[in-house]
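Entry 14. Structure prediction run on the chain below.
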Amino acid sequence: MSASADGDRVAAGLGPSAHVDTFARDHLPPMADWPRFDFTLAPGLRYPARLNCAAELLDGAVAAGHGDRPAIRCGATTLTYGALLAEANRIAHALVENLGVVPGNRVLLRGPNNEQMVACWFAVLKAGAIAVTTMPLLRARELAYTLEKARVTLALCDARFEEELVAAAARADVGEGGQRARVVRYRDGGPGSLEALSAGKPATFASVDTASDDVALIAFTSGTTGAAKGTMHFHRDALAICDTFSRHVLRPTADDVFCGTPPLAFTFALGGLLLFPFRAGASAVLLEQPSPRALLETIQNHRATTLFTAPTMYRVLLDHLGEYDIGSLRRCVSAGETLPAAVYQAWLDATGIKIIDGIGSTEMLHIFISAADDDIRPGATGKAVPGYEACVLDDAGQPIPPGTVGHLAVRGPTGCRYLADPERQRGYVRDGWNLTGDAYVMDADGYFWFQARADDMIISSGYNIAGPEIENVLLEHPLIKECGVVGTPDPARGALVTAYVVLRDPAAAGDGLVAELQDFVKAEIAPYKYPRKVVFVESLPRTETGKLQRFRLRQLAAEAAGRGA
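Output returned:
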């Protein structure tokens, strides 16, 4: 960024950046397309101009006297706040001194939830770089897109998950002259590994004096057009979600023990399994493979008090509750998909705990509508979280009265800033409001009631899955002429990914081809995205201009589900 351009940013409200690599600030959307940010809707949301959220959360916890308290537990490993700080500091030294990281560089993180992933996350931010955390299930083509979109030149990867990332790095152009990302392994210990590079480094590190509005992380969401969107969040944003939803709805204490199922690449997990416990001086138990029984065993053995997972998992857990002692639980949080009233009631009957439902988005970083305890109304998502305001708008962007279906709109201390994506930025933000793509009704008491998704996203088992992305993969198969992918209503998963397929040779249809197509998708993108149902059809419904009518496919899917087909 030029000095004059940076001066324009400062004049418009951004502080002087600490980033030497100015890629992130250079690729923020034009400020005219930003949502309106409001820091006056709840106390404690005014942050200093210079702020490093990693130092605030980790160094701050040690300074507050939590150094000897457990911070992260994973398997047989327990790291205190002091030990985690020392490990993060050693890694930060290796990043700067051995790997050439400068403030503003993007560093991709790949691996399951464990203590090393957390140490790397803190180290990246303490070094002034930007964390780009990815799910371990992603395949090479998805990882290559992320590397290129965020111009990532360094990736830290769990050695057990390097194959797809190495393949992605070999094909992704991340800089001038065909530059490729460097992949450094951890949980390896061999020469050149992160452990080898950080061994013997000092246990202290002077965190980079970043601006509170320097980008701290880029989180990628599943886009409805098939291309993931990078959402950019500042250092102050990481604290703002702690000081809104966590502080006013969750209300944790230092004695709480957090656990859950989502990967840390999901901002739902980043808040629930890292930022929220650390802001309170509490601890988190991380599971690399969070199966239902492993989760219940973790709650029992670690006396977990706070659970973050999706409605689908709550339903599955109900089948096994009698085998475990989960009496330590006091808070259960649900997000990722609508919480069915039947699941809420069954969990309440079995445990006596009212599940805290909520809606958030990667663009907003975390939950902005929710309710807890006696404020819960079963079936409603809740009210605007203190620090946010929300309303329902009509198609013209005007507020509509209670009881009317419209577009959910929200604003507060966090908001949408897409990475180099002006068209979709203008689609998500209108007149200062963030439009989430959900259809809602607000009642006379300010409670919000979900009606439907306003786009083509499939929400299955807590995962956001973009139908067009799967279509793009299927169309690479030589036997497929056309296809359309939508969600089929399913009581267990919320929705099943369903592919309607037109074959070049209809005679090839059959169970064998169904399995072949499913395996084809699994080999190209994250396995959870594969179509669990494949329906062979003669043609797809289209408009006169040739546009696929997905709403008609959804109608077909709903009708088939009603018939039990």
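Confidence is low (pLDDT under 50) at residues 1-12.
Filed with the rest of this week's runs.
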